[in-house]
From TrEMBL:
Superkingdom field: Eukaryota
Span of domain Fucosyltransferase C-terminal: 201-382
Major localization class: Golgi
Compartments, as annotated in UniProt: Golgi apparatus, Golgi stack membrane; Golgi apparatus, trans-Golgi network membrane
SUPFAM superfamilies assigned to the protein according to its UniProt record, in alphabetical order: UDP-Glycosyltransferase/glycogen phosphorylase
InterPro entries: Glyco_tran_10_C, Glyco_tran_10_N, Glyco_trans_10, GT10-like_C_sf
Any GO MF annotation of the entry: 4-galactosyl-N-acetylglucosaminide 3-alpha-L-fucosyltransferase activity
Name of the featured protein: Fucosyltransferase
Oligomer status and interactors: Homodimer.
Lineage, top ranks: Eukaryota, Metazoa, Chordata, Craniata, Vertebrata
Keyword DNA repair: no
Catalyzed reaction equations: beta-D-Gal-(1->4)-beta-D-GlcNAc-(1->3)-beta-D-Gal-(1->4)-D-Glc + GDP-beta-L-fucose = beta-D-Gal-(1->4)-[alpha-L-Fuc-(1->3)]-beta-D-GlcNAc-(1->3)-beta-D-Gal-(1->4)-D-Glc + GDP + H(+); a neolactoside nLc4Cer + GDP-beta-L-fucose = a neolactoside III(3)-alpha-Fuc-nLc4Cer + GDP + H(+); an alpha-Neu5Ac-(2->3)-beta-D-Gal-(1->4)-beta-D-GlcNAc-(1->3)-beta-D-Gal-(1->4)-beta-D-GlcNAc derivative + GDP-beta-L-fucose = an alpha-Neu5Ac-(2->3)-beta-D-Gal-(1->4)-beta-D-GlcNAc-(1->3)-beta-D-Gal-(1->4)-[alpha-L-Fuc-(1->3)]-beta-D-GlcNAc derivative + GDP + H(+); an N-acetyl-alpha-neuraminyl-(2->3)-beta-D-galactosyl-(1->4)-N-acetyl-beta-D-glucosaminyl derivative + GDP-beta-L-fucose = an alpha-Neu5Ac-(2->3)-beta-D-Gal-(1->4)-[alpha-L-Fuc-(1->3)]-beta-D-GlcNAc derivative + GDP + H(+)
Entry's EC annotation: 2.4.1.-
Pathway: Protein modification; protein glycosylation; Glycolipid biosynthesis
Length: 385
């Protein structure tokens, strides 16, 4: 605290020095600033609670602080109310700034940290499934009695390793699954007033597909088989690592927007496993052609008439014929965008290192609202069922 004020004063002096308007004006400025900062500091010391640090170790103390915060006596008490969310490891080592939750999703309701020294006071701990090698790199036991462990995993069952011993260890699940305790998903936003101004972006390509992964072990066989047949009947423009045609991050949305249709083919087929592959084309102003779970599963997240499902057709050839026909029928094509009057898609973050921001911020939002006791049993029975 003392450090911070001293730093503030010296940085203020430095910044005053660097834009001199005349020596006397400068001196006056420094004096006024110093006086202001010092009195602010005094006021702050007098009115801030004395129990700022070290962090409390035993939870009941914090709960009593929460009830005293209800008297609204200071802003710092409000901050103390925020539950601590400890990120045990950075998923895939993709680090980001914790303030991104506020920046991107306006979520600011927990205190995120990656500092394991706060373990004993952490209300919740996120454990990333893929980083668990065996039980030895989990957080230590016994855990504080108030603490909840959150299982973070975004891959589908096809791409999930069963690590024995995790079945009855967690309190909350954080996953793409709708029946997870904390489901993670980009959602369309309902508009208050209908939007009549949406303009379909200019198109110079018919069907596009960005693919980074061709590895059959990840479950991509279904989509590869479908694609091989489909591409006999219609021109598809390919991008991505799998075809050595890399697309820069800045080109992702503009490229997608320039295609009439986009192949939103999931790598493996599981209920609710509907990823950013669908959100991308919707956000860009393109019609997604989806391959994944059943149509009605998609319809629980996005309007029925916002996408084309490969299951709507008896075979890849009929799908190709339908797209070619839509290409010539502007009015029929335009109908795929009617939903935009009432719903707005939001572009998702596309940098690789941003992959887990939405999930972690969603957890932050959840734990501040829902603080009850919870146990998640038979993790794999649930996940693989
Ligand atoms: C504290 O402030 C909130 C809104 O800022 C208000 O709704 C609440 O009634 C206040 N509580 C007390 C005890 O004054
Ligand atoms: C969290 O789950 C574990 C394992 O089921 C359980 O022992 C613990 O009491 C739970 N804690 C809370 C705070 O929900």
């Amino acid at each position: 605290m003392g450090h911070q004020i001293a730093d503030l004063i010296s940085s203020l002096i430095r910044s005053k020095m660097s834009n001199t308007n005349g020596p006397s004006l400068l001196r006056l400025g420094v004096i006024v600033t110093l006086a202001g900062v010092i009195s602010l500091g005094v006021v702050f010391f007098w009115f801030s609670p004395s129990n700022k640090c070290p962090p409390p170790v035993f939870r009941p103390v914090q709960y009593s602080q929460i009830s005293s915060a209800k008297t609204n006596n200071s802003l710092t008490d409000k901050a103390e109310e925020k539950p601590v969310l400890l990120l045990w490891v950075w998923p895939e080592n993709y680090r980001f700034d914790f303030s991104d939750c506020k920046t991107f999703y306006n979520i600011d309701s927990c205190q995120l940290t990656d500092d394991r020294a706060l373990y004993n006071s952490a209300d919740n701990v996120i454990v990333y499934h893929r980083a668990i090698t065996d039980l030895s790199n989990l957080p230590p036991s016994p855990r504080p009695p108030f603490q909840r462990w959150i299982w973070l995993h975004l891959e589908s069952p096809t791409n999930t390793k069963r690590i024995p011993g995790l079945e009855n260890l967690f309190n909350l699940t954080l996953s793409y699954r709708q029946d997870a305790d904390i489901p993670v998903r980009m959602r369309l936003i309902t508009r208050k007033k209908p939007n009549e101004d949406f303009v379909i972006p200019k198109k110079d390509k018919l069907v596009c597909w960005i693919v980074s992964n061709k590895d059959p072990s990840t479950g991509v066989d279904t989509r590869n088989v479908f694609y091989r047949e489909f591409s006999k009947y219609i021109q598809v423009t390919l991008f991505g690592k799998a075809f050595s045609r890399f697309l820069g991050y800045d080109d992702y949305y503009p490229t997608m927007a320039s295609c009439k249709f986009y192949l939103a083919f999931e790598n493996s087929i599981h209920k609710d496993y509907i990823t950013e592959k669908l959100n991308g084309p919707l956000a860009a102003g393109t019609v997604p052609v989806v391959l994944g779970p059943l149509r009605r599963n998609y319809e629980s997240f996005v309007p029925a008439e916002s996408f084309i499902h490969v299951d709507d057709f008896p075979d890849p050839k009929s799908l190709a014929e339908y797209l070619l026909q839509l290409d010539k029928d502007e009015d029929a094509y335009r109908k795929y965008f009617n939903w935009r009057k009432h719903l707005t898609p939001s572009p998702h973050l596309i940098l690789q290192r941003q992959e887990f921001i939405l999930a972690i911020c969603t957890a932050c939002d959840y734990i501040a609202r829902r603080r009850e006791y919870k146990e998640a049993h038979d993790l794999y029975d649930w996940y693989f069922s």
